[in-house]
Amino acid sequence: MSLEKILSIGGRPGLYHLLTQTRSGFVAESLLDKKRITISAHSNVSVLSEIAIYTLEEEIPLGEVFQKILVKEKGGKTSVGHKEDKLKLEEYFFEVLPNYDEDRVYPSDIKKVIQWYNILQENGITEFIKDAEEASEEE
Known about the structure:
The protein is globular, with a radius of gyration of 15 Å. It starts with 5 loop residues before the first strand and ends with a helix. The protein folds into 2 domains: 3-48, SH3 type barrels (Roll); 51-123, Orthogonal Bundle (Arc Repressor Mutant, subunit A), CATH 1.10.10. The protein has helices at 62-72, 86-96, 107-122, 132-138, and strands spanning 6-9, 16-21, 25-30, 36-40, 45-47, 52-54, 59-61. It is α+β, with helices and mostly antiparallel strands. The longest helix is centred in the last third of the chain and has 16 residues, at 107-122. The protein has a 5-stranded antiparallel beta sheet with strand order 4-3-2-1-5, with no helix packed on it. Strands 6-7 form a two-stranded antiparallel sheet.
């Protein structure tokens, strides 16, 4: 499963897997408790594959950031939790993405990235970018 079917829904905790579309919205399943919910088309929904993180040079897709965390943590969960203090979160994120734009990436954004990574990791979703081999060759 790739990030194209993983959703963040405004006002709801965690992440959701898109199951199907309906006339008035769609049906999604929570990755936290596996409950299915119906979401209206008017809800604030973000697809993880469409989210990017600001760096000093460009915007990096969230999948690439997740891939960098995966490599740093050798395939495991993050060494810091999303509830750590601001300084620890920023230090960790600086190790993962040294050129992130500190003025445009807030501690709340870093918390979400770490929390989302760990949720995906718990659910066995580690295919963050289309072709992981190509990305590692570019680095």
